[in-house]
């Protein structure tokens, strides 16, 4: 009997995990520059937290949730996205309190779970890197946060990306648009997909997000939400556009974009990749927007918010598609060659001592012959190779070779134990 990983999941093996680490480290440094701090929330939440926030009629909640009842009969779900759990944590931990900075800026890098049909860039367990800002209604917050996402891709060397924005308006604008949309769709009720028929009165904006072919003609001819913005929403959107221009960030406006989650208002955005290698398909690699009412919805005080989530699997596909090499650390400072079983203990002590001085070190554990050990040292690109045989053990010395120059000398073991940092500097600088 042999086992396989669940469908739609991946083992991220050494050799690939360092790509992930590079991406993660790049994000941590950049997000620090923007003064975002990391948050980590549980992998599962009460079902209600997600269904209330993301919306019952969305695909995520109605079709894609991993939900279950635990032994205490609690209705739980593996989180499908990051914003709702963080909004829950924001309210529960009273992060709106006076002791916290305003706006409150936080980021996460965590696995998410959606029951979807697996394909390239679509997994059942996938990873999102996301950021949230709580407490600012300033359009500069929208723009700064979008700019951070763009800067992240740029820093990784990704070129073929496109920022697409839209406004969903505030509650008042949305109500006016909702009616206009129903008026537009109702005469075609019979031609709509089954799903859109259900959504038409419950949540007509969802129809615009439909991937069903039958709905496309009516999505294309739908009235534009941008014609229904009230003065305040119009002003907000205009300012966002103007600020993007001031920062010379290219963008396009797509008035049919609604996003797959219900909590958004005003600015929404997606970053798309048309990298060669995605097979000509344009793929969303990052998405987000403003959600000024979610915190209240979850029982907190009135708190405007803005955030995004980006898929890391899709990011890695994009990096590959654009032929971006990720630097992989592939050298070690010292390889210790131990010859003969008698040297086993001393070799262990030597690598430990070298590491205690802050250097990387490795040794043989398989009792291999000298030649095989030197081969390992070469393979690991060791800068120095320290060789200890039984004769050296007697005299408490070792041979050390600087691999780049081929220079060799004899070293007192005492020096390795007491001042290896100086020994290393001297050898490597010569
Ligand atoms: P799509 O329309 O492709 O299903 P979505 O609208 O469901 O995307 P969001 O909920 O906005 O996506 O999630 C933000 C980002 O997370 C997406 O842009 C994508 O990069 C990534 N993502 C979403 N679902 C998956 C998945 N199943 N596997 C891998 N990445 C995903
Ligand atoms: Mg989806």
Tell me what the structure shows.
The protein is an alpha+beta fold and 430 residues long. The protein folds into three domains: 224 residues, BirA Bifunctional Protein, domain 2, CATH 3.30.930; 59 residues, no CATH class; 96 residues, Rossmann fold (3-Layer(aba) Sandwich). It is built from 16 helices and 16 strands. The strands form three sheets. An eight-stranded mixed beta sheet has the order 1-5-6-11-10-9-7-8. Strands 13-12-14-15-16 form a five-stranded mixed beta sheet, sandwiched between helices. The protein has a three-stranded antiparallel beta sheet with strand order 2-4-3. Helix 1 runs antiparallel to helix 5 and helix 5 runs parallel beside helix 10. It is elongated, with a radius of gyration of 28 Å. The mean pLDDT is 95. The protein binds adenosine-5'-triphosphate and magnesium ion.
């Amino acid at each position: 009997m042999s086992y396989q990983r669940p469908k739609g999941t991946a083992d991220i093996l050494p050799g690939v995990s360092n790509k992930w680490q590079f991406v993660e480290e790049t994000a941590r440094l950049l997000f620090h520059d923007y003064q975002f701090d990391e948050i980590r929330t549980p992998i599962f939440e009460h079902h209600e937290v997600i269904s209330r926030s993301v919306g019952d009629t969305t695909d995520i909640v109605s079709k894609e949730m991993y939900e279950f009842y635990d032994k205490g009969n609690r209705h739980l779900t593996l989180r499908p996205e990051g914003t709702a759990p963080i909004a829950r944590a924001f309210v529960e931990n009273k992060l709106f309190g006076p002791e916290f900075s305003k706006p409150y800026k936080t980021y996460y890098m965590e696995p998410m779970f959606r029951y979807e049909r697996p394909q390239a860039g679509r997994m059942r367990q996938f990873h999102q890197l996301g950021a949230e800002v709580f407490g600012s209604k300033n359009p500069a917050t929208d723009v700064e946060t979008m700019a951070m996402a763009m800067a992240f891709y740029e820093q990784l060397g990704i070129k073929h990306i496109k920022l697409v924005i839209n406004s969903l308006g505030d509650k008042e604008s949305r109500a006016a648009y909702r009616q206009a949309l129903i008026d537009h769709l109702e005469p075609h009720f019979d031609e709509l997909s089954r799903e859109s028929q259900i959504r038409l009165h419950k949540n007509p904006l969802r129809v615009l997000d439909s991937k069903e072919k039958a709905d496309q003609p009516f999505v294309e001819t739908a009235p534009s939400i941008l014609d229904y913005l009230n003065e305040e929403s119009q002003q907000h959107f205009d300012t966002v556009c103007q600020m993007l221009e001031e920062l010379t960030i290219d963008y396009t406006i797509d008035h049919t974009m609604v996003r797959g989650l219900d909590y958004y208002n005003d600015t929404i955005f997606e970053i798309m990749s048309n990298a060669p290698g995605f097979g000509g398909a344009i793929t969303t690699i990052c998405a987000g927007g403003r959600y000024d009412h979610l915190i209240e919805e979850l029982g907190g005080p009135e708190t405007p918010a803005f955030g995004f989530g980006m898929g890391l699997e899709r990011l890695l596909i994009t990096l590959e598609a654009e032929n971006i090499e990720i630097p992989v650390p592939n050298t070690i400072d010292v390889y210790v060659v131990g010859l003969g079983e008698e040297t086993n203990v001393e070799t262990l002590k030597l690598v430990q001592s070298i590491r205690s001085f802050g250097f990387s070190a490795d040794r043989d554990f398989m009792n291999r012959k000298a030649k095989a050990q030197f081969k390992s040292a070469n393979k690991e690109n060791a800068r120095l190779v320290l060789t200890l045989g039984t004769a050296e053990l007697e005299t408490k010395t070792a041979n050390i070779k600087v691999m780049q120059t081929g220079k060799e000398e004899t070293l007192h073991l005492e020096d390795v134990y007491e001042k290896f940092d100086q020994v290393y500097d001297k050898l490597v600088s010569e």
